[in-house]
Amino acid sequence: MSEQNKQEPVAFDVVCDDCGGNGLDQHNQNYHCAACDGLGYTEKRLYTSPPANANAGKPWMGLTNNELQLLCDEYRILFGSWVTDFAYTIEAKLKEKNSDQQVSSSYLL
Q1: Which pTM value belongs to this model?
Q2: Phi, psi angle pair for 99, to nearest 5°
Q3: Number of Cβ within a 10 Å radius of residue 91
């Protein structure tokens, strides 16, 4: 990765190695977990956005009819052709929007 594309963290957080809590003493910057009195910690770097290559090479994964059926059941929607048409139209639009490529689909209006 080139230096230009390398992101710098915008902040740091600390997480207790024993319980996952945090408790940085603001006065002297010593770590002391308020939840379990632990002294060991792991530093966590925080970024404004995921790395540019986070999804590089990852193929688009659409929903299957079975997954659509389960979602319809969960939200008490009658599963039918209009639901699949609507879902696949949304998928095509998202794919187009997130991949910067024109999607050729009969679902797009």
Answers
A1: 0.43
A2: -115, 0
A3: 17
User: Which structural domain range is residue 37 located in?
Assistant: 8-47
pLDDT (tens, 9 = 90+) of the chain, 109 residues, equals 444 357 788 887 777 788 877 655 555 466 667 777 777 777 778 888 766 666 666 777 888 999 999 999 999 999 888 888 999 899 888 888 877 666 655 555 4
Residue identified by tokens 């915008």 is 10
Q: How many domains does the chain have?
A: 2
92: Cβ–Cβ under 8 A, 6 or more apart, which residues?
A: 103, 105, 107, 108
Q: Does residue 54 fall inside a structural domain?
A: no
